[in-house]
């Protein structure tokens, strides 16, 4: 794997609080990597260290194989887009996009060409003369992207770039950012707390918790084999069951309910009682209560209606799942 950037044993301490705790991370070149995790897990701090706005307390950051730990932000050749687009209100769209190029002393002709090319890439060529206030939120977002891309950055860093957009536009912009990434071949690092966004957009996904990396990999690999309870929970898994061999999870679409008591030779077979049945046309979501020591847990089955047995609340069932659908987790 060709690395665009590397974190080597990087730690960031604020006072007595460790925001990033000894992480090793490789950002593959030409790919889109997301840093994903709940609020406060250290995503933004990691991105800010990569950008050079914060210096690690210890460890090294390499960009293109060169130690950039002490390099100031403007020397790193990075483009950045924040949640608040940070456009200059008194400048036109074109002037905003030209800003970084001007700072770098790019000549007029080259500058004009890059501005036109970047605006075209984000589909805003026709709005070059407008001021930011005369643009929609989505359009402002695109200007911020064009401005970051215009300098042809080594890395494009995006910090929750879609969180100020409404739901429909957010989904549209996910595809748009991926298209731009494909067309330019840029290395992109995106911070998000939205697992759907990460699953849909990433080539590589890095899940963080309390300053540490919990799991890293391609979305399909992480999703199909979450390493621990935290990752599984965060990716929306349900059905956590303690078995003789440890904690397992099984997706609701793999849980089959069998009326009455049965015992399975292998896989899961737990006696339970139907608590709720949500009929939703093509599929059925059934909640079953299963005793767990002195307490009870709720397990869910989500299967196609035509494959589901007719059940009623209060009915005794066996909750079954095939061995290959049981995912072992560390707690
Ligand atoms: P969010 O999604 O809420 O932005 P995050 O995962 O990006 O969360 P960070 O912004 O990296 O989290 O913050 C990690 C932790 O470090 C938080 O608890 C935050 O309060 C703390 N922190 C960040 N910057 C500073 C600072 N300059 N001084 C003190 N604490 C800080």
Detailed description of the structure:
The protein is elongated and about 80 Å long. The mean pLDDT is 92. The protein has two domains: 3-231, 3-Layer(aba) Sandwich (Rossmann fold); 238-329, OB fold (Dihydrolipoamide Acetyltransferase, E2P) (Beta Barrel), CATH 2.40.50.140. The chain is 26% helix and 36% strand. A hairpin with a 2-residue loop joins strand 4 and strand 5 (66-67). It has 331 residues and is of the alpha+beta class. Strands 6-7-8-3-9-10 form a six-stranded mixed β-sheet, sandwiched between helices. The protein has a five-stranded antiparallel β-sheet with strand order 13-17-14-15-16, with no helix packed on it. Residues 14, 17, 19, 37, 39-45, 193 line the site of adenosine-5'-triphosphate.
Q: If classified by CATH, what would the architecture of the largest domain be?
A: 3-Layer(aba) Sandwich
Low-confidence stretches: none
Output the number of helix runs. 8
The count of DSSP E runs of length 2 or more, i.e. the number of strands, is: 18
The hetero molecules present are: adenosine-5'-triphosphate
- List the secondary-structure elements in sequence, H or E: EEEHEEEHHHEHEHEEHHEEEEEEEE
What class do helices, strands and sheet pairing give? alpha+beta
What would the principal axes of the Cα set say about the shape? elongated
How widely separated are the two ends?
31 Å
CATH-assigned fold name of the largest domain: Rossmann fold
* Assembly annotation: single chain
Q: What is the class of the largest domain in the CATH system?
A: Alpha Beta
Helix content: 25-40%
CATH superfamily annotation of the largest domain: P-loop containing nucleotide triphosphate hydrolases
The biggest beta sheet is recorded as:
6 strands, mixed
Tell me the β content: 35-45%
Overall average residue pLDDT = 92
Strands in their spatial order, largest beta sheet:
6-7-8-3-9-10
- Count of folded domains: 2
Rg (CA only): 24 Å
